[in-house]
Design goal:
Elements (H helix, E strand, L loop, with lengths): L10 E3 L7 H9 L6 H13 L6 H16 L13 E5 L2 E6 L6 E6 L4 E3 L18 E3 L4 E6 L6 E6 L4 E3 L19 E5 L1 H4 L9 H6 L3 E5 L5 H8 L4 E5 L3 E2 L5 E7 L14 E8 L5 E8 L6 E4 L7 E2 L4 E5 L9 E5 L2 H6 L5 H10 L8 E4 L13 H21 L8 E2 L1 H7 L1 H4 L6 H8 L16 H18 L3
Parallel strand pairs: 10-11, 10-20, 20-21, 21-22
Antiparallel strand pairs: 1-2, 2-3, 3-4, 4-5, 6-7, 7-8, 8-9, 12-14, 12-19, 13-18, 14-17, 15-16, 15-19, 16-17
Helix pairs in contact: 2-3, 6-8
């Protein structure tokens, strides 16, 4: 304790006001800030109310809450105040409550950093003496400074994106709170999850789990594309002369990470990734990153700007889907295109990035194994044999990494289940052709509509099985 502290008149630096729309938007869109989750906290209820969530639906939900969002100061907590900087005799630096002028954290002229247990006023305090302040990082706090004895948080950033200073919200913050999982699932995948219109993640599974399901999947995509879409892997964009023209689109001359392949979309449509970049003068530009079909290049599409903007080489592109539904159960079915194209070396790294972004304390996810094509049995030759070797090794590695669902782990052998059990699940008596397929380690060919994709009845059974796995896990 410090006795008889005489305090001169304080100077508060800056006005006490809620964050402006521009400031808030910049903070929410700047790479590395966690306040973006506050956006999701507002959008999620609208998404959860609509089990048929599409890209357009997500954008519509975001638009619906935009006005309320930008009129709220999500940075400083429920009372919407901004802690002010203190300059006064005896203090080199301090952060104070703008109403009570209570010091939350400060450095005195002796060079000592002090944290206060009580913030009713500048004369009502209790130092933590010679004890070291503790930095807290857990399921509730992204970062916080806490009393090492009581765990009371003096200043911290919650995982909701809000900044809290002890005393500002009228309660004693405690560390170690559980971040609950959200009721619902999000399906991550390629054309197998896209399912040729069957859409089992949004139709079949919710019918059994009684929870909303969302599908973020696209034909032809490999693991890096889905990690980009979910915002767990930020693209690095370089434009000609490091300039973003006033009128787009702007061609992307180089896209990173360069250890991933970003060459083109397969099929007859562009791959669209909605998101933002930040220019050198901190202008947030929202648009669409388009990987164009059939090798036609990559471009960033955006509304007209007031003038051309300078952007640094390798500027980060952040997907609008980043942190969307991060508390939902994740069904991750990736790797089919990795195996076909030889991208297996970063499949697990991309999946790990998706899992790491799940915010609930209990990370609810299932990784589904890669299924073989009709020509990728034990008897396969040539390129089919090479592809088979890739996915067989990949599945074995996934099993070792995440453990079998049957043993309490998070990996499910989709190929093995469809090969050995799907006929029985659908009440079909196997024919000699079916038995020959199974003996060659192939899923019965009757369940394919081409060399890779499955029939509607197969997709329905897949949706039912995935729902059963989540029910057995207690995730409903």
């Amino acid at each position: 304790m410090v006795d008889d502290l005489t305090l001169p008149e304080l100077e508060l630096v800056g006005e006490f006001e809620a964050a402006s729309d521009d400031t808030l938007n910049f903070i929410l869109r700047t790479i590395g800030t966690q306040s973006r989750q506050a956006v999701i906290d507002l959008i999620t209820p609208a998404l959860a109310a609509n089990p048929d969530v599409t890209q357009a639906g997500a954008v519509a939900a975001a638009t619906a809450v935009a006005d309320a969002l930008f009129k709220s100061d999500v940075i400083t907590g429920p009372d919407r105040r901004i802690p002010q900087i203190l300059r006064a005799a005896g203090w080199v630096h301090g952060i104070v409550d703008p109403d009570t002028l209570a010091v939350l954290q400060g450095i005195d002229e002796g060079g000592k950093t002090k944290l206060w247990l009580r913030e009713d006023s500048l004369t009502d305090y209790g130092t933590i003496g010679d004890r070291m302040a503790r930095v807290v990082r857990n399921d509730e706090w992204l970062w916080a400074i806490a009393d090492p004895a009581t765990q009371a948080v003096f200043l911290g950033v919650r995982r909701t994106g809000h900044v809290y200073a002890f005393g500002l919200d009228g309660s004693t913050a405690q560390s170690g709170a559980v971040v609950p999982a959200e009721r619902g699932s999000v399906a991550v995948g390629d054309s197998l999850t896209y399912s040729d219109g069957t859409n089992f993640p949004e139709t079949v599974e919710p019918g059994l789990t009684n929870q909303p399901g969302a599908r973020l999947a696209m034909f032809g995509q490999s693991s890096q594309h889905q990690a980009l879409l979910l915002g767990t892997l930020d693209a690095q964009l370089t434009f000609a002369s490091n300039q973003l023209p006033a009128n787009g689109p702007a061609a992307v001359t180089l896209m990173g990470p360069t250890n991933r392949d970003w060459s083109s979309s397969s099929g007859g449509a562009d791959w669209i990734f909605p998101g933002t970049i930040v220019t050198a003068d901190h202008t947030v530009v929202r648009g669409q990153l388009a990987i164009k079909q059939n090798g036609a290049g990559i471009e960033f599409r955006y509304p007209p700007l007031t003038a051309a903007k300078t952007v640094r080489a390798g500027v980060a592109f952040v997907s609008d889907y980043r942190d969307v539904m991060t508390r939902r159960t994740h069904d991750i079915w990736l790797g089919r295109n990795n195996a076909s194209r030889g991208y297996m070396d970063y499949l697990h790294a991309d999946i790990d990035s998706i899992i790491a972004r799940i915010e609930s304390t209990e990370k609810r996810f299932i990784v589904y194994g890669i299924t073989g094509r009709t020509d990728e049995g034990l008897s396969a030759t040539g390129t089919a044999a090479i592809s088979r070797a890739r996915w067989v090794a990949g599945n074995a590695s996934s099993l070792a990494k995440w453990g079998s669902v049957a043993a309490g782990g998070n990996y499910f052998d989709m190929h093995g289940w469809m090969r050995d059990s799907l006929l029985g699940v659908l009440g079909i008596t196997p024919t000699s052709t079916d038995l020959a397929d199974i003996a060659d380690d192939r899923i019965p060919s009757r369940f394919y509509i081409d060399t890779t994709h499955f029939t509607p009845e197969a997709y329905t059974a897949i949706g039912q099985k995935r729902a059963q796995l989540k029910i057995a896990k207690g995730w409903t």
